[in-house]
Amino acid sequence: MLRLDIVTPAKKAFSDDVESVVVPGIQGEFGILTAHAPLVTSLQPGELRYVKDGKETSLAIGGGVVEVSYDKISLLTDMAFEEADIDEDAVEKALERAQKALSEKPEAEEMAAIEMTIAKSLAQLQIKRKRRQL
């Protein structure tokens, strides 16, 4: 078993023992099982999946960092939502605003923030819409 702790600026979003975890690393998705080699890496917005008692659960997460040790995963992120916590209409509106702002050719700093908003919105929509496809 692995101990998974997911912390956002607002709260501890998740803390429990799990069987496995798949995270959206900055260079692509990677899986974590017990006895994983120690690792610290950046995260990109996307889908985090964990298995507990044979059941897979997905969360939409934002950017952040993950630290993996032998049997513990500490994930610090600016966003972590389960499907039930995502307001699809609000996320779609935020995505539309961000895409409009991006089309106005913003400065580099503002562009990075807009692109992050788009990535987080897409991660949330992916989780929300995944249930409908099942």
N-to-C CA distance: 28 Å
* Strand residue percentage: 35-45%
What coarse outline follows from CA principal-axis ratios?
A: globular
Radius of gyration: 16 Å
Helix content: 25-40%
Low-confidence stretches: none
CATH homology superfamily of the largest domain: F0F1 ATP synthase delta/epsilon subunit, N-terminal
How many runs of DSSP E, i.e. beta strands?
Answer: 10
Features:
134 residues, alpha+beta, ATP Synthase, domain 1, 2 domains, five-stranded mixed β-sheet, five-stranded antiparallel β-sheet, 2 helices, 31% helix, 43% strand, globular
Description:
The chain is α+β, with helices and mostly antiparallel strands and 134 residues long. The protein folds into two domains: 2-83, ATP Synthase, domain 1 (Sandwich), CATH 2.60.15.10; 85-133. It contains two helices and ten strands, in the order ββββββββββαα. It has a five-stranded mixed beta sheet with strand order 2-1-9-8-5, with no helix packed on it. Helix 1 (88-103) runs antiparallel to helix 2 (108-133). The longest helix is centred in the C-terminal third of the chain and has 26 residues, at 108-133. 22% of the residues are buried.
Give the helices and strands, then pairings.
Layout: E1 2-7, E2 12-18, E3 20-25, E4 28-32, E5 39-43, E6 46-52, E7 55-61, E8 64-68, E9 72-77, E10 80-82, H1 88-103, H2 108-133
Parallel strand pairs: 1-9
Antiparallel strand pairs: 1-2, 3-4, 3-6, 5-8, 6-7, 7-10, 8-9
Helix pairs in contact: 1-2
